[in-house]
Amino acid sequence: MGVELPFERSEKNKNLKAFKTKRMATSSFLTEIRKTYEKNLTRLRKLRSALEEKSFTSESANKKKLEKFTTTANITKVRYKEDYASSDIANKLCMHYLQTGENLPPDGLPLSDVYTLLSKIGEGASSKIYLAKDNNLDILCVIKLILQTGSEETRQKFYAEVKTTAKLRHPNIVNIFYANHIGSYFYYVMEYIDGASCEDIMKKRPFSIHEAIHIGICTAKALQYAHASKIIHRDVKPANIIMGIDGTVKLLDLGLAINPRFLNTDERNKIVGTPYYLSPEQARAEFEHINEKSDIYCLGATLYHILAGKVPFPGKHLVETIAMVANMDLAPKNPGFLRAEIPKKLEDIVMKCMAKKQEKRYENMGEIIVELERIPGSSSLNFSIH
């Protein structure tokens, strides 16, 4: 056993003190963000109550817009730096979410002469999803109603986005058939898949390893096709992957998908996506670095959750989650620690997808497909959504 010299002990104490100081500063920084965020959110809730009393907007619309604070990261540019004022970050989290609106068509009433809403099957921060009937063809379909009133500019942008995504015809992408608006709200019609989202399935049971591989391959193929069309999804997550009762896997909700050439300056300065599955460049709002490799990270984070049953960065609140994702020195636990049966090869694929630095991720979806298909048993699947 070696003898520790005095100057070595002094150096260790110095490093330990520096580490503790940095950790305390970071903790204090996050605490300040949380306090200011909660303070502003309280003020915003009071404003909502005032608006409701004056009947300026519907209860449903207000509720969902406030929930957006804790479910998505569609916020103004936030960078996780110790020299960035915590109050600035918190304030930016509480901007632009209360809008006056119109009452939405109730369930069961005709949305138009062609479609009748049957039941609500999903609801997000800025949308409602309905099971509907095409009265002309007598078939089921799905309608997504966007809960944002729009100007003429918004209308044109909506139709441009829908036209772009409607052209994506692939076996692993949900097809869009029609788009229109009712009043100042927009909606589009999608094919109906008899199944459930990966998110809903995980609430009932864990996925098998073979199912996870199958999901990864099919989703990667869908993204590979989208990328070939110059489209970046930006919001790959379990809720946006549908599993049919026959084992069909389809990627949906390309509402956040972009062709980077068409975004204006304001849109480039927003964090868009869902916090648990954001890539670091999305979390930092580094638009110039958001590309196909951002979707690779999102796919990795999605597979991590499907395999391990837990998200890679489980922050206590939205701000902490984004900060953890944005921190280039922070890596998640290997999923094998949470589920021992995960093959080492599969674990390596997931972790490479989730590399914080883009240059350490796979070059494209094609490479991921090849790697996943090499895992023994990847072609066998005994699937049930129950």
Structure description:
By secondary structure, this protein is of the alpha+beta class. It folds into 3 domains: 6-93, no CATH class; 115-146 and 150-191, Phosphorylase Kinase, domain 1; 196-373, Transferase(Phosphotransferase) domain 1 (Transferase(Phosphotransferase), domain 1, Orthogonal Bundle), CATH 1.10.510.10. The protein contains 13 helices and 10 strands. The N and C termini lie far apart (59 Å). Residues 51-103 have low confidence and may be disordered.
> How can the largest sheet be summarized?
5 strands, antiparallel
CATH first level of the largest domain: which class? Mainly Alpha
First-last Cα distance:
59 Å
Domain count: the total is 3
Outline the low-pLDDT stretches.
51-103
Q: Please state roughly what percent of the residues sit in beta strands, choosing from under 5%, 5-15%, 15-25%, 25-35%, 35-45% or over 45%.
A: 5-15%
Q: Order of strands across the biggest sheet?
A: 2-3-4-6-5
Whole-number mean pLDDT: 77
What is the helix/strand order? Answer: HHEHEEEHEEEHHEEHEHHHHHH
The CATH architecture of the largest domain would be Orthogonal Bundle
- Radius of gyration (CA) equals 23 Å
From the helix content, strand content and strand pairing, which structural class follows?
alpha+beta
The coarse silhouette is globular
Quick rundown:
The protein has 386 residues and is α+β, with helices and mostly antiparallel strands. The chain has helices spanning 6-53, 59-71, 86-93, 152-166, 198-204, 209-228, 265-268, 280-283, 292-308, 318-326, 335-338, 344-353, 365-373, and strands at 75-76, 115-123, 127-134, 139-146, 176-182, 185-191, 195-197, 241-244, 249-251, 270-271.
